[in-house]
Amino acid sequence: MSGQKGVCGEKGSSDYVSGKVVVVASKACREISRTALVWALTHVAQNGDCIKLLLLIPAICSSKRIWGLSRFATDCTTGHWRSGVGTASDQKELVANLCSHMVLQLHDFYDPEKIKIRVKILSGSSFGAVAAEAKKVQSSWVILDK
Question: What is the domain-level CATH number for residue 20?
């Protein structure tokens, strides 16, 4: 796929990148690990690239009280997660906010002016969701966490 330009934003976005698109997929059921994202930033991503952090909330987790954790698995924030968050939309919003804080704390690993990170949260995802997203954004790399 070298030489191809990908899109890292959402549908209708003009967020084309000059470099490669790297999809980092992680299950967000009981914790959100930043390990795969840090690995992508330190081993794969280069200036002009875009990382698409794809967080999957499995159907089995989205129907339960899953967000009773006090912090991320890697201690990247001290924010408290509320238990019994509510609807899937509420869960997505909470995860998105926490991911934004996590990304801000990773500035030691990358220059946000040179490497873009976009977060997408999929609730109740089916098998093949990661592959479908990787194809949609024309990714050069897919990195799976756990």
Answer: 3.40.50
Domain total of the chain: 1
Tell the residue number behind the tokens 């967080």, with chain if given.
55
Q: How far is CA 146 from CA 24, 27, 75, in A?
A: 11, 8, 17
Task: Give the 3-state DSSP-derived string for the chain, with helices as H, strands as E and coil as C.
Answer: CCCCCEECCCCCCCCEECCCEEEEEEECCCCCCCHHHHHHHHHCCCCCCEEEEEEEECHHHHCCCCCCCCCCCCCCCCCCCCCCCCCHHHHHHHHHHHHHHHHHCCCCCCCCCCCEEEEEEEECCCCCHHHHHHHHCCCCEEEEEC
At residue 82, the pLDDT reads 41
Q: Are 88 and 73 in contact (CB under 8 A)?
A: no
* Bigger pLDDT: 83 vs 36: 36
In a domain, 4, yes or no: no
pTM of the complete model:
0.75
So what's the pLDDT on residue 85?
52
Q: Which of 72-76, 119-123, 124-128 has the highest mean pLDDT?
A: 119-123
Range of the domain at 114: 15-140
